[in-house]
Amino acid sequence: MSGVTVTLAEIRETPLSVDEVLSSVADARAGGTCLFVGTVRNHDAKDGSEAGVTQLDYSAHPQAVEVARALAERLAADGRSVRIAVVHRIGRLEVGDLAVVVGVSAEHRGEAFEVCRELIDEFKATVPIWKHQRFADGTDEWVGLP
Fold first, then answer.
1. What distance in Å separates the CA atoms of residue 112 and residue 81, rounded to the nearest whole number?
2. What phi and psi, each to the nearest 5 degrees, are found at residue 110?
3. Residue 111 in contact with residue 81, Cβ under 8 Å?
4. pTM of this prediction?
5. d(C-alpha 24, C-alpha 91), whole Å
6. Is 40 helix (H, G, I), strand (E, B) or coil?
């Protein structure tokens, strides 16, 4: 398929918009669109059990945007999708805030689901963004540090 476009590959301090990502991947060639929306949840595993989370702070390496764009472009190059977008927020986030939004449109739903899953999984595994969790008991932890 020709004309695959990476419409967004950004790291921002401002609130994210599902509508922005959805509209950025819209295309008349696409028969299916898949979105992944990651939100800050009110709990996480800590020391083998669940602990209440009150807020997160995300930090990113200065080259995180370049790594994110390269990932999106690599996935776009295989021809399974029409448009791809990924946006991650950094800074202080509260429970319920959007942390990451991924959108993929493709000619068929199967490809949209596949590429969306690959994009979020590889993004979380390879893009240098770190999470500092604050727990209800006053403790904290860093997640994703090298």
1. 6
2. -60, -45
3. yes
4. 0.94
5. 24
6. coil
Torsion angle defined by CA atoms of residues 26, 27, 30 and 33, in that order, rounded to the nearest 10 degrees:
-10
Please report how many Cα atoms fall inside a 13 Å half-sphere around the Cα of residue 133, on the Cβ side. Answer: 19
Q: Can you tell me whether residue 96 is helix, strand or coil?
A: coil
| CA triple 3-8-14, angle to 5 deg | 170
For 86, the token pair is 């990924």
The answer for 23, left when phi > 0, alpha when psi is -120 to 50, beta otherwise, is: alpha
Residues making up the chain, counted from first to last: 146
- Identify whether the C-beta of residue 91 lies closer than 8 Å to the C-beta of residue 57: yes
pLDDT at 1: 42
Place of tokens 């991650």: 88
The one-letter amino acid at 50: E
Cα atoms in the 13 Å half-sphere on the side-chain side of 6: 20
Domains and CATH numbers, the chain: 5-137 (3.90.1170.40)
Residue 2 is predicted with a pLDDT of 53
Mean pLDDT per 10-residue section of the chain, whose length is 146 residues: 81 98 97 98 87 95 97 95 97 97 97 98 97 94 84
Helices (H), 91-138: 109-126
